[in-house]
Each structure stands twice: as structure tokens, then as C-alpha cells.
Amino acid sequence: MTGRWHRVRVHWHDGRAHDDAIRGRTAGEALANATANWITENPHGRAARVEHLPNPADPRAEFEQEPGART
């Protein structure tokens, strides 16, 4: 999978949510990949929905970084 990291928020049926990062060439592709990971192909504890989050204002967000990497 190529593409940069995108931020997504995974929402659970009980109201909880958590943030994750997933690769995609576009926001739509990243959202589709996250949906497959957390809803479509996840046989255990499927999420209710996944939303794409905007990248932070930090210009470094546009570069290839591992999730959680800080410089």
C-alpha cells in the first residue's frame, strides 16, 4: 500500500471512539481502507462507523511519517 498516513476516528456501537492512522493515496482511499479494517473485514467487534479527520495544521503532517512519530 502506498500513500501517506491519514487520521481516522473509529466509532463503536457503545459510544466510545478512538483515533487511528491508515495509509491511502487520497482521503477517500484511506477511509475505504479503514472501513475495511474496522467494519467490513473485522470478524470481531465491528465498529459502527469510521470518519476521516483533517490533518493537523502542522506542515510536517503532509510528509510520510509513522503514526505517532514526532520530530
TrEMBL record:
Entry superkingdom: Bacteria
Protein name per Swiss-Prot or TrEMBL: DUF2188 domain-containing protein
Keywords: Plasmid
